[in-house]
Amino acid sequence: MAESSPEYCPASTSTSGGESSPESSESHRKIENCQVCGQKAHGLHFGAITCRACAAFFRRVAAGANFVIKCRKGGGKCEIVSNGRSCCKKCRLKKCKEMGMNIENFQYDRDPLSTSKQITPSMAMYLGRPEFIILCDPETARNSITTKIDLTGIIDKATKILMSDIKIPRSSGQNRLRKLSTASNIERFSVSADDDFHEVTAIGLKETMSFWEHDILTVAKWLTHFDEFQDLKPDLKLTFLKTIWSVWNRLEKLGRTTMFLKSKTAPSWDETPIFQANDVRINLKDLKLDIEWLSNYSVEQIAYYIEGVGDWSSFHSIQPMLELDPTEVEINYMLAQISFSFATRELQGELSEIAEKFLQLIADDLHNYYTRELSVSRYSDRVLKMMKINNLVMKNMFERKEKLAIARTFDIFHVEFSDSEMFKDMF
């Protein structure tokens, strides 16, 4: 056992931690039956002559019970018989104490294996720095120049999209999910060829900013296809966008990749392609990163914090999504569900209530999609699989938050955004 546990005392053990007198030992030998249950005694345990069963019971229950033990019959006078089996625990424990059994006689640290609680110190613990940057000069991070990124231009473009008063009409019989599908047009990736995409092999600040702009504006356009969202006040629209854009794009990139791969002969993700934008594909294994704008450490030193380099957890959802083989409507339901669920957690008051309402609306539309368009009455299995994928994406996001907390503690990143809330889950 790795932890210490109280052991019952052998027959020669004293009742109070000291040595037994010859007279008391002689008197104990005359008692042949357990003083608790009346069965054949084994020896002196915790201050009374008992059998092994009663000794084990007292050791287990007397010191560690954090629950209320109730008498079976309610009178507190149950008979302790049958070697302690099927008897009242409350009355049995009471009898043990009446016979002189005491938890002060428990003996700890008698395990044959070492139970030392001292943790062997490591260099990382001694220096208070993670192992992957342990050989780096702390001044490297401390004296770094902060990169300040102004998001004003991107936010202005997104605001212009959100504030458009033009409502996109639904076609006949089109529900919300169908309308959102026309905005994302994710189905096109299932009929695309390899040469339809431009492969990016190097990414620096310029390319990163371009991807962020594409991602934020894509979510803004997608939201405008949701009728009830268009009815919100301008400030509420922008708050929703700033809250959900990151999680929406995280799932949408996985959906793009899934749509592209599922048209192949043997669809499976070989840890290579991720589709970043409409016509951009990234080969993660051959990608070169320029992170001078982000950190003074090298890519190798902080790979643990970079998705697609040392952190691959975000892409674990691709294979289960391939196995699900979702339709375009199902992917848009997943996008809406994960976005509005995330909003209910991050936002408060009126905004949280609005997000809850949106979740109910898309759930109703998904039901109508299955029952009316596909004529499927039993679809709970597919919904369950979709929720498992969404939950996995959310789990990866929360795990990444923990990593980022460590990164901030050790000043690994030196970037500052004009709207820090939008990137709190990234840097």
From TrEMBL:
It comes from the Eukaryota. Residues 34-60 form the Nuclear receptor domain. SMART domains: HOLI, ZnF_C4. Residues 12-24 have a biased composition (Low complexity). Keywords: DNA-binding, Metal-binding, Nucleus, Receptor, Transcription, Transcription regulation, Zinc, Zinc-finger. The keyword Protein transport does not apply. GO terms for molecular function: DNA-binding transcription factor activity; sequence-specific DNA binding; zinc ion binding. Gene3D superfamilies: Erythroid Transcription Factor GATA-1, subunit A (3.30.50.10), Retinoid X Receptor (1.10.565.10). Residues 1-26 are annotated as: Disordered. The keyword DNA damage does not apply. Belongs to the nuclear hormone receptor family. This is Nuclear receptor domain-containing protein.
